[in-house]
C-alpha cells in the first residue's frame, strides 16, 4: 500500500472520494426524480 500512497498524493485521494460521493448523490437525486415523475 505504501507504493500506492507514493504514486498518488493525499489530495488526489480526497478529491477522488469527494467526486465519487457527489456522483452517487447526483445519481440518487435523478433516480428519485424519475421515481416521483413515474407515479
Automatic annotation (TrEMBL):
The lineage of its organism: Bacteria, Bacillati, Actinomycetota, Actinomycetes, Kitasatosporales. The chain crosses the membrane at residues 12-34. Keywords: Membrane, Transmembrane, Transmembrane helix. This is DUF6126 family protein. InterPro entries: DUF6126. The keyword Transmembrane helix applies. It comes from the Bacteria.
Amino acid at each position: 500500500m505504501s507504493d500506492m500512497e507514493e504514486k498518488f498524493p493525499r489530495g488526489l485521494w480526497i478529491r477522488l472520494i469527494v467526486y465519487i460521493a457527489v456522483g452517487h448523490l447526483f445519481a440518487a437525486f435523478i433516480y428519485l426524480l424519475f421515481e416521483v415523475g413515474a407515479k
